[in-house]
Amino acid sequence: MRRRPAHILAPALAVLAALSLSACGENSPGGSSSAAVTSAKGGAYGDCEVTGTKGSVKLKTVESGTLTVAGDLPSRGWWNGNTVADIKSGFEYCLAANIAHRAGLEKLRIRNVSFDAMVAGKGSGYDLAMAEISITEERKKAVDFTSPYFASNIGVLAKPGKVTAENIRGLRLGVKQATSGAKFVQETLKPAKAAQVFPGDAEMLAALQGGRIDAVLTDTAIVLGQAKGSGGAVAVVGQYETGESYGALLPKDSANTAVVNGVLADLTSEGALDALSEEYLGEALGGDPAAVPVWSL
To answer: What is the pLDDT of residue 15?
Structure first.
């Protein structure tokens, strides 16, 4: 799997069809633990392989010697584990590990923070957040974003054979609170019935599988993993092109934003982001986003 360069990132994972994929599911609740700390051992954090020169950049962190990263945890492929304490790998986890390494920080602390609090700029006590967060002009009013490191359209997850581009506006739709998918449904798709809003992916998927809603709309890169984990019960039947990209979120006017942008640029040019995508997202997504039919409004 290869991504395009960061400034024109697209999740075109064309080699996935050739991979032997194991089943994986939706984002799971964070369990009883809301934070976990990993200390660098032998130059690595958890199961991540880090690259570049240790201490080549400097970050101002909330805790000395530690990079504290918030996420909506766990999230298969991005933050792998059944609980927060289990997380030792994944695209965003290992991206955070690489940032910590290049900043010369010996510890990586991850915190489970609600998605809506992160994007509203209401969270505190962490240096940056990564939770498959789409960069939007509205969110930029409250927080800073780095340059993009991944892109995703809005995918439609449904039981096979029930939802089409022609009938979707008349169905019962589900969205995740404070996401770009929720905004897309409300302002652009404009269904006949207001979409049901859920606090997290797990609750939204349960409602779909239980028949309380007909379709879920959120990032294609997320719903592909949910479809794979369902064992065929649900599928990604379509997607809408929105040109969205994921970026790391930082407090408004953070002095660290430019530094992290520099790290992302280096990781991109060195092929490190490509390697993370290939290692962690192929199995998690369980399909090629480029192969999902694009629906017109």
So the answer is: 28
- Check: CB of residue 78 under 8 Å from CB of residue 90: yes
**Which residues share a beta bridge with 174?**
196, 216
Structural contact between residues 101 and 54, judged by C-beta atoms closer than 8 angstroms: yes
Tokens 């690489």 sit on residue: 98
Residue 209 to residue 76: CA distance in whole angstroms: 19
Domains of the chain (ranges; CATH) run 6-150+245-290 (3.40.190.10), 153-243 (3.40.190.10)
Q: What is the pTM of this model?
A: 0.74
- CA atoms of 72 and 94, how far apart (whole Å): 15
CA 24 to chain centre: 15
Q: Which residue carries 């059944």 as its tokens?
A: 82
Please give the Cα distance from 93 to 110 (Å, whole number).
Answer: 8
Read off the pLDDT of residues 20-37 as tens digits, 9 standing for 90 and up: 222 222 333 333 358 899
- Beta strand residue intervals within 149-262, DSSP E: 150-158, 173-176, 196-198, 215-219, 235-246, 249-251
- Identity of the amino acid at 88: K
